[in-house]
Amino acid sequence: MAAEHFERNQHMTGNTTHRQVFLLAIAQALFQTASVLVMTVGGLAGGQISPRPELATMPIAAMFLGTAAVTFPASIWMTRVGRRTGFVIGALSGVAGGLCAAFSIWLSSLSLLSFGTFLVGAYQAFAQFYRFAASEVADEAFKPRAISLVLGGGVVAALAGPMLGRLGGPLLHPEYVGSFLLLALVSMMAAGVLLGLHIPNTKATQNSRQKGRSWATIVTQPTYLVALFGAATGYGIMILAMTATPIAMTHHHHDLSVTATVIQFHVLGMFLPSFFTGSLIARFGVLRIMLAGLALFAGHVAMSLTGTGFSSFAGALVMLGIGWNFLYIGGTTLLTTTYAPEEKGRAQATNDMTIFAVGLACSFSAGALLQHFGWQNLNIMLLPWMGLAALALIWLDYRQRQRLRQAPA
Question: By CB distance 3.0 to 4.6 Å, which of 4, 47, 80, 153 could disulfide with 25?
């Protein structure tokens, strides 16, 4: 009887876990749709109303500024009010951002457009914790797959984000007003989905904070630093190249529909592997998968040197997307091994705030770098960064092997 009761409880717990992961994956799909939409048309809308070409990517940079600025307070606040409240407030920020951005285009105001995308960035700051929320409801065996499956929701965004950007572009006058109104609608749908979450409140974490290690002790661990550097490398390089792509393709006489198709292929590359990345990490180890991600980044650079036609852009951006997936999921999985439950607020916030600060710098500089160096030279300049990340991963792998050899039998 007791065995049957235990088995029934285990089954119910498994169902609850999978339901929460499923809802988080839907929310991820909707959030990424909004984010990809900004990446698809943000630079084009900015270029339409910007007085200077190098400021065209300012709306995209503002989105990453919003994410970098809000990430740390969002993480700490959610330890007090719980994940669901924070996630819903974040989605409502996306609604406000979409409405503000649409109004700004009607007024031809680059600064107001950037404020609107800043609010979308605040939405992104909260949404980046969906993957950590998935890891919190899953057991150790299911954790890598839970993270992967939530990020796998971005497959929908690969199709919907560019499609809505392209559909909304000519929908209303001036161009792109409709795109940002659709963004507001998608964000409202996400808020509705997130109301169904029932993730255990993390208030207890605040009471036990004194038992955790200091912030400096957590973030100076070698494993933490390598996980952070790997994920920041993946995100920074991906954002720099992705932000520059629509503008570079316009310079090379590709129209919006062709550009949107390339972005769709890229985002599919980012999220489609999520359905098996967790299994690959379990089989081959997280460091090897992250190194494979860097090898794919090198393939992106090589592909970008083959020309400026559709196939060259598409092939390069697909490799860029898969490389990001391996580095980002790998970095997240590695990071979760470096902190205790009572330390997660500070550890996760520092990680994501740093990643999005790097994303901010890369998105803001993309327009100027493209203007001065051109598409192919811009990609060549990324190789030393990739090399440093590879060395860091190889060093950590060597260090871990040495520790295993020195451990008592």
Answer: 153
